[in-house]
Amino acid sequence: MNETTQKFLAKPSSSYKMLMWSTLALSILGAVMVFSASSIYSLENRGNSFSIIGRQLFFLVIAIPIGFLASRQKLDRWKKLARFGFLFSGIVLVIVAIPGVGKEVNGNRNWISLGFIDIQPSEIVKMLMILWAAHMLASREHAGLHRTNVLALITPGFILVMGLIMLGRDLGTAAVFAAILAGLLWVSGVSGRIFGAVTAAGFSLIALAIVMAPYRAQRLLVVFNPFAPEDYKNAGWQPAHSLLGLASGGFFGVGLGASRQKWGNLAEAHTDFIFSVIGEELGLFGTFVILLLFSALIFSIFRIALRASDPMSKYACAGIGTWITFQTIMNIGSATSLIPVVGVTLPLISYGGSSLVATYLALGFVLGAARRDPAAMADLEKNR
């Protein structure tokens, strides 16, 4: 690490700036890559190459003001919302589970159709549950009840939410909630023995969900060799063509818009497998830039969590950091065939209005936590 970098990181406002610039850069790259990855699919299915990118830009225009307003909210307002976070989460997920109300997409019933758009309530529920859990943990800390059983405090609520999500057969989203729970338990200071037991139980439940669904078990098996003749045209098709796209990109890629895999070979190229399109069109250099930007984003979130003086801000930022970290790993892991295809978006990059709005709402909260840091704001004013 050179001297300039050390000086930058030593400044209290560095995390604030990193969060702002990495979010902006990822959003711009995401819009460009969604247009590139979706243009062929959009033309074939909707008769217009700009249909999907138009929707993404529409949601981006909505998401940015939401993030800005979220960053300006006082902590007391977040606390009021947090008290009802679990209740609101349960209500919206029960609504999704009602036959005829919830909409099924690719085998998962986790959507609600509003006619002109479809929304995925579980994306907003991530933020609501993080706020609720952070409020519960902060209330325990404020009351001095450090001996309170943290596991019993927030785990039942997360288990119920994950159960409702699994009713819609969305294992990927349920796994993200499990990771958020694990992250919150870790930062709350549970013992290593309890954390290990909870983690083992979580992996056991995920394994059980995979074994009980033959298509999930098949997805797991093809990870080892998606090009196997017996699997290639079935469960191995997506991971195989994702790897082909990444392998053909070389160092600088085949050129923006020149992907061959998006011409029907790689399903969900603009959502679940957009990282593969980035690797094919922008090469290893492009994927490295994406990883670098996500590293900066995640580093800044956890650094803001560490600097937060209020317990609720600390826990909520840690939960948001865990959410974005784990979801990023899951998406890129699926694209590189390191883990089975799980069907989660790459935050700020993949097409998806609900995901984009929820992510900006969460990052707005983190930005607000940074703004409540007197030293960071004083440093910003000094530089200004």
Automatic annotation (TrEMBL):
GO terms for cellular component: cell division site; plasma membrane. InterPro entries: FtsW, FtsW/RodA. Its main location: membrane. This is Probable peptidoglycan glycosyltransferase FtsW. PANTHER family: CELL CYCLE PROTEIN, PEPTIDOGLYCAN GLYCOSYLTRANSFERASE FTSW-RELATED. Its EC number is 2.4.99.28. Keywords: Cell cycle, Cell division, Cell membrane, Cell shape, Cell wall biogenesis/degradation, Glycosyltransferase, Membrane, Peptidoglycan synthesis, Transferase, Transmembrane, Transmembrane helix. It is found in: Cell membrane. Pathway: Cell wall biogenesis; peptidoglycan biosynthesis. It comes from Candidatus Planktophila limnetica. Pfam families: FTSW_RODA_SPOVE. It is an enzyme of class 2 (transferase). It is a multi-pass membrane protein. It catalyses: [GlcNAc-(1->4)-Mur2Ac(oyl-L-Ala-gamma-D-Glu-L-Lys-D-Ala-D-Ala)](n)-di-trans,octa-cis-undecaprenyl diphosphate + beta-D-GlcNAc-(1->4)-Mur2Ac(oyl-L-Ala-gamma-D-Glu-L-Lys-D-Ala-D-Ala)-di-trans,octa-cis-undecaprenyl diphosphate = [GlcNAc-(1->4)-Mur2Ac(oyl-L-Ala-gamma-D-Glu-L-Lys-D-Ala-D-Ala)](n+1)-di-trans,octa-cis-undecaprenyl diphosphate + di-trans,octa-cis-undecaprenyl diphosphate + H(+). GO terms for biological process: cell division; cell wall organization; peptidoglycan biosynthetic process; regulation of cell shape. The keyword Transmembrane applies. Peptidoglycan polymerase that is essential for cell division. GO terms for molecular function: lipid-linked peptidoglycan transporter activity; peptidoglycan glycosyltransferase activity. Belongs to the SEDS family. FtsW subfamily.
